[in-house]
Design brief:
The complex is a heterodimer of chains A (233) and B (746). By secondary structure, chain A is of the alpha/beta class. Helix content of chain A is 28%, strand content 27%. Chain A has a six-stranded mixed β-sheet. In chain A, strands 2-1-4-5 form a four-stranded antiparallel β-sheet, covered by helices on one side. In chain A, α3 runs parallel beside α5 and α5 packs parallel to α6. Chain A is globular, with a radius of gyration of 17 Å. With 746 residues, chain B is α+β, with helices and mostly antiparallel strands. Chain B folds into four domains: 201 residues, no CATH class; 183 residues, no CATH class; 199 residues, no CATH class; 122 residues, Barwin-like endoglucanases, CATH 2.40.40. Chain B contains 21 helices and 20 strands. In chain B, the strands form three sheets. Chain B has a nine-stranded mixed β-sheet with strand order 16-17-15-18-14-13-19-12-20. In chain B, strands 3, 4, 5, 6, 7, 8 and 9 form a seven-stranded mixed β-sheet that branches. Chain B has a four-stranded antiparallel β-sheet with strand order 2-10-1-11, covered by helices on one side. In chain B, α9 packs antiparallel against α11 and α20 packs across α21. Chain B starts with a helix and ends in a 13-residue tail after the last helix. The mean pLDDT of chain B is 89. The chains are: A alpha/beta (233), B alpha+beta (746). At the A-B interface, α2 and α3 of A face α13 and α18 of B.
């Protein structure tokens, strides 16, 4: 398994405000797989993603990525893990507003010695003519494509996507998902996608349902539908 | 709504307590300094005015070659002018370090003595000593005081308003009470001394007057012209009178204006914080707009905290200052220089108003101006927190590496804070340059006076000796006046030979094209080729000259002219002179001597400036450093805080602390380095232009040139302070964890 999560528990708050968000989650994802994590609000899906991304500590359990135990890693080691292994895509893009598209991508290119080719990536993501524009001059879809390009430039082995289409309309959402699918096929990137969107599950290899901090259902998708054919996005 | 918002204001104050505390302390310090400095100046000004009234200060004075006879005095009195003799002798004390005393009779009508301790002499064996001279020589009431073989018991220590500034000569640049002071004897004791044969110089026939019957000074002068008038001085032209007040006027003006500038800067610093809050709370503001809250409501809300903080800080500063905590320290230099009694520190009414009104009003004005545009957006735009890149910030940066590009973008984004840092640095340096110019001027005066005074003694004579004493150089000195900045200064036309060994000047045979001293050129802004005029107030005529050359001579305002040309111009005989320069003391008939000035007098007089100015130099240097550090710290901190989301974002990507610092903190190095490179010489240049207006009453040249190494040292200190603050702020970068980015950003 490329991603091995075993009996992970995570809680927040104390006394009256104590909430146990993950109550012992165990998940495994193979290298090169696209995996969707679904669930209702408060089910713990974003928390699980953040724990895998090293953005949040876990209370107990184990979280191994490519054999590396990230639970208990120190700050610098966690930075190295994120730098060398991960790419992040957020719902609200999180672009640096005062940097152009190209410069936003440079933010992550700076971190790696072997980045992907910038121009090729810009062309692949349809951003070539927008490279010198600022985020405020772009549509939502263009901003999310920029965020994807930023995540991909360092050719990460694991891409963590938190509601990547949550702020986009249906057509733009489809474009983005087609893009993610292409990247998965082209670069063999493992992807964990947290989403509310029920249709996305049809395009991925694995589907995990979370409910009240526990995995309620988990299956491998044997009848994958290409992203361009997804409906009700 | 306002009630709810008011609660929030208090919560904001609590949340950002340290920040507002630092700003509050700066404002409190600012008001404290303004009230203490201006209040002390006002206390001294008003105190000396009251003293002048109580002691019946003269309206003017004049000297005559021989005393007026009774009928002349009567004629003056008939004009409605009260005239009184204030004859005196100058006596060089046996012990040279005791300097010269000026011996007067007691006064009973004009320029009466104000006793700071003791009483009027009851017998001819008693004496009154001027306060500053007494202080410098550790003399107290009851001590004995001896000169010329007479021994007196000190019955009183006092001051007189006509010697508020105890200058020995009217043309002196500074006073030094170690070497000069006035003493007062009763009539009998004065006559005893006068007839003792121990006088060293002739008696000076000085009269003082009070005008009445709508008479003017000019009426009296007109009358005296037909007599043997040698000097006529209106009160306004007498540098000894109201010397303290004239000195303090600058403190009042500079203190008030400096306060306003600093409060505007601090208002701007506060506005940066408020703008930061507004940007952070953009969606909340949008939501409130959509629910009907008006811009006016929010403007009032956001301005209320700066107003409250600045008002309280101002009030605290005022109340602390009003206790007079530091007033004695601020006024000390005046009490140690001028001859005045100690006055009780008092804060005038307008300073109370200034202190509680100025900081909040300026903060409100600056904040309303800055915040207004930020709140001038639609509810939807605010809810979406639309970030629009201003055109000025849409600069294309190509060919630069990523780090440089990022830093430039960051600087453009934080332009407001960058401007505040540069502005703060500029203002701090401007304040610092006041102390620098004071220091350099004092140092240069001490150095230049030593360098330029080549004679040992200068004797000013009533009339020439029959034979010129050996090893002396003769000269002809004539005092005229020239005004600048509302002050009238003595300018001496000095007729010398080309061969005069004490002056490195070749005046040449011309009455029109003359050489002037560098001090004169600096004070009056004269250059080679310029034409100017000086006024002979006794003859009421003007002499016009053209500057042929400027001689390096710092010790006074001199016009150097060939002695023969000058004799001819003034209608004197071909062998006339009234000044003798020599290396050593001369044995001259005391009756012929007006005054003696030694090289020591001049050099020591010059050194007084440094002693006098050093406390102010220290205060201003510390104040400017504090302003610089606090403004730089607060602005760099706000730059980081504003980038909290982006910092946590790049931490998510795997950036380490060192790399975050490189992007978000180290770029400021260039702002400071380049800013200081521009602002440092600029502030010196501007202060060089302003400085003369700050010391309009000081009779000396303005050699305030700073050596290059000074700029290098200050530049290095600025960078060192930057690195110090940078180091402190590095810890701030750790506050923003990667998890910060997970908070809803919309």
């Amino acid at each position: 398994m490329y991603v091995e999560v075993s009996d992970v528990k995570k809680s927040y708050g104390e006394g009256g405000s104590y909430v146990e968000v993950l109550k012992g989650v165990s998940v495994g994802v193979e290298q090169g797989e696209m995996c969707v994590i679904q669930g209702t609000s408060g089910s713990g899906k974003s928390t699980l993603l953040n724990c895998i991304g090293g953005l949040d500590d876990i209370d107990s359990g184990s979280c191994k990525i490519d054999g590396l135990e990230i639970a208990g890693l120190k700050k610098d080691a966690l930075s190295d893990y994120r730098r060398d292994t991960l790419g992040f895509i957020f719902q609200f893009y999180n672009l640096v507003p005062n940097l152009t598209v190209r410069e936003n991508i440079e933010v992550c290119r700076y971190l790696t010695k072997n980045p992907l080719d910038m121009d090729e990536l810009l062309t692949t993501l349809g951003l070539k003519e927008h490279a010198d524009k600022f985020p405020s001059q772009l549509s939502g879809g263009q901003q999310q494509r920029t965020a994807i390009a930023r995540a991909l430039i360092k050719n990460p082995k694991l891409l963590l996507c938190d509601e990547p289409t949550g702020a986009l309309d249906s057509n733009t959402s489809r474009d983005i998902l087609v893009l993610l699918e292409t990247i998965n096929q082209k670069y063999g990137t493992t992807m964990l996608i947290v989403t509310h969107n029920n249709s996305i599950k049809d395009m991925v290899h694995r589907v995990i349902y979370l409910k009240d901090g526990l995995i309620s259902k988990e299956y491998t998708n044997s009848k994958r539908i290409p992203a361009r054919e997804l409906e009700d996005l | 709504m306002q009630k709810v918002l008011r609660k929030r204001t208090l919560r904001n104050l609590k949340k950002h307590f340290v920040r507002y505390c630092m700003l509050g302390i700066m404002i409190t310090m600012g008001i404290f300094l303004v009230v203490t400095i201006v209040g002390s100046a006002e206390t001294l000004t008003r105190g000396t005015e009251k003293l002048a009234e109580d002691t019946n200060l003269e309206d003017g004075e004049f000297e005559v070659f021989a005393p007026l006879d009774e009928s002349e005095v009567e004629e003056i009195k008939d004009m409605g002018i009260n005239v009184s003799e204030q004859f005196f002798f100058d006596y060089q004390m046996e012990n040279e370090v005791d300097g010269t005393i000026r011996i007067f009779k007691l006064r009973d009508s004009i320029n009466k003595i104000h006793y700071v301790s003791g009483n009027e002499p009851a017998s001819k064996n008693e004496i009154v000593i001027e306060k500053r001279y007494a202080y410098e020589h550790n003399l107290e009431v009851g001590d004995s005081f001896s000169f010329a073989g007479f021994t007196y018991n000190i019955s009183g220590i006092g001051v007189t308003s006509d010697y508020d500034g105890p200058f020995k000569e009217i043309s002196d640049t500074s006073c030094n009470s170690k070497y000069f002071g006035t003493v007062f004897l009763n009539e009998e004791a004065y006559e005893d001394f006068s007839s003792s044969g121990k006088t060293q110089k002739s008696e000076i026939y000085l009269y003082v007057y009070k005008l009445g019957n709508d008479k003017k000074d000019s009426d009296l002068k007109e009358y005296l012209k037909k007599r043997n008038l040698t000097m006529f001085l209106r009160r306004a032209d007498n540098p000894r009178i109201f010397a303290t007040k004239n000195d303090k006027l600058v403190d009042i003006e500079v203190g008030m204006i400096a306060g306003v500038i600093i409060f505007i800067l601090l208002g701007y610093v506060i506005s940066v914080f408020v703008v930061h809050s507004i940007e952070k709370e953009s969606s909340i503001i949008g939501t409130l707009y959509s629910m009907g809250v008006t811009k006016k409501d929010l403007l009032r809300h956001y301005v209320s905290l700066p107003i409250v903080v600045t008002f309280i800080a101002g009030l605290v500063g005022l109340l602390v200052a009003a206790t007079g905590l530091m007033a004695p320290m601020v006024a000390e230099s005046s009490y140690l220089y001028f001859s005045i009694p100690e006055f009780k520190f008092n804060v005038p009414g307008y300073l109370w108003i200034y202190s509680v009104v100025c900081p909040p009003v300026l903060a409100a004005m600056v904040n309303v101006l800055v915040i207004n545009s930020k709140l001038n957006r639609t509810a939807l735009s605010l809810i979406r927190n639309e970030v629009k890149q201003k055109n000025g910030k849409k600069i294309k940066l190509k060919g630069l590496d990523f780090v440089k590009t990022f830093r430039i973008r960051q600087m453009l984004r934080e332009m407001r804070s960058t401007v505040a840092v540069i502005l703060g640095m500029f203002l701090a340096l401007l304040v610092f340059m006041i102390s620098v110019d004071c220091y350099i001027l004092c140092n240069n005066i001490a150095k230049d006076y030593k360098r330029d005074t080549k004679y040992g003694y200068m004797y000013t004579l009533k009339y020439p000796e029959e034979t010129i004493p050996e090893d002396t150089e003769v000269a002809y000195a004539y005092t005229c006046k020239k005004s600048i900045g509302g002050y009238k200064f003595d300018v001496i036309i000095l007729g010398i030979d080309d061969s005069n060994k004490y002056f490195d000047v070749k005046p040449g045979k011309s009455r029109m094209n003359i050489v002037i001293s560098s001090a004169f050129a600096e004070k009056f802004g004269l250059k080679k080729g310029d034409e100017f005029a000086v006024t002979d107030e006794e003859k009421e005529i003007k002499y016009a000259f053209s500057v042929k050359d400027i001689a390096t001579y710092a010790t006074g305002f001199y016009i150097f002219m060939d002695i023969e040309e000058m004799r001819d111009m003034m209608g004197q005989s071909p062998d006339y002179y009234n000044v003798l320069f020599s290396d050593k003391k001369l044995d001259l008939d005391p009756e012929t001597i007006y005054s003696i000035t030694s090289r020591d007098d001049i050099v020591k007089g010059a050194e007084v400036f440094s002693d006098l100015m050093m406390p102010m130099v220290y205060v201003l240097t510390i104040a400017s450093s504090v302003i610089f550090c606090i403004v730089m710290y607060l602005m760099m901190k706000v730059m980081i805080d504003r980038s909290a989301q982006n910092i946590s974002l790049i931490k998510v990507f795997g950036y380490r602390r060192k790399e975050v610092k490189k992007l978000y903190l180290d770029g400021n190095f260039y702002v400071i380095a380049i800013g200081a490179l521009i602002v440092l010489p600029l502030s010196k240049l501007i202060m060089n232009k302003i400085f003369p207006f700050m010391i309009p009453n000081v009779a000396c040249g303005l050699n305030i040139k700073a050596p290059v190494y000074f700029f290098v040292v200050v530049y290095v200190i600025i960078l060192a302070l930057y690195f110090l603050i940078n180091k402190i702020l590095v810890k701030r970068l750790d506050v923003f964890t990667p998890a910060e980015i997970l908070k809803n950003r919309e």
